[in-house]
Amino acid sequence: MANREALKNYTQSYLNADAFEDYCPNGLQIEGKEEINKIISGVSANLALIERAIDEKADAIFVHHGLFWKNDSQTITGAKRRKIALLLENNINLFAYHLPLDAHPDVGNNAQLGKLLGINNMSPVANSLLWTGELELNVGEFGVEIDSALQRAPLIIGDQSANIKRIAWCTGAAQGFIDQAVELGVDAYLTGEVSEQTPATALENDLVFISAGHHATERYGVQALCQHLSDKFGCQHQYIEIDNCV
Ligand SMILES: [Zn+2]
Q: Within this chain, do residues 114 and 212 fall inside the same structural domain, yes or no?
């Protein structure tokens, strides 16, 4: 069993959360009960996840995408009201960790995804949101690997028979980092989402681009974090997958 304040303080320092400038508050977003036996983890604080967590008698929910974002409406109406009301009525704590969970060297989304995809010699570049590593596969083989690891077919732009030796990646909606990948001189760049201009940028720079899904690339950090916390504090942990095609 974990005490809420102890869990909060430990996680905040483990993820170095106060060091990040982010678009959302990182940490405890909704305060619930003080004693935490059961943690549910999920990618995003959507209604379906909250309802499933209530069914599972969760004391705390940990997510990568929380309920409060910088440019959101400041009022609590509609679906947002429903979600907050459910959390408060059921006395469930909501913890959200965004950029600190992408960047962490062990339980972070980038580190976990790299491990899952069999990337070698992984290391973060400067800001630690973009990572690089090495592979010994061609594009087609790597596509099959991604499909089986993530259970989702990736969108691949580039020559299927080209070899990938050096790859850069960043989970989520990081298609905007493609220019940094070009500058790094890697053979391929993998992220979650894709924009209209991304295929041209990839082709014009002779870079293989892979969109493997925002949700699919960000399932693993929160699970690794909560596994770590449940080992540390002796509470239960269960991951709940809420299907998302993007
Ligand atoms: Zn994300």
A: yes
| CATH, residue 128 | 3.40.1390.30
Please name the helix (run of DSSP H) or strand (run of DSSP E) that holds residue 14, with its range, or none: helix 4-14
Beta-carbon neighbours within 5 Å of ion ligand 1: 172, 218
Q: Strands 93-96, 27-30: parallel, antiparallel or unpaired by DSSP? A: antiparallel
CA 244 to ligand 1 centroid distance, Å = 12
CA of 69 to the centre of ligand 1 (A): 12
Distance (angstroms) between ligand 1 centre and the Cα of 58 equals 23
The answer as to whether 244 is a domain residue is no
Give 224-244 pLDDT, tens digit per residue.
Answer: 999 999 999 999 999 999 999
Q: If you measure from the C-alpha of residue 161 to the centroid of ligand 1, how many angstroms do you get, rounded to a whole number?
A: 30
Q: What is the pLDDT of residue 127?
A: 67
Q: Which domain holds residue 142?
A: 109-217
Question: How many angstroms separate the alpha carbon of residue 2 from the centre of ligand 1?
Answer: 27
Give the pLDDT confidence score for residue 162 in this predicted structure.
Answer: 94
Contacts of 156 (CB under 8 A, 6+ apart): 139, 143, 208, 209, 210, 211
* pTM of this structure: 0.96
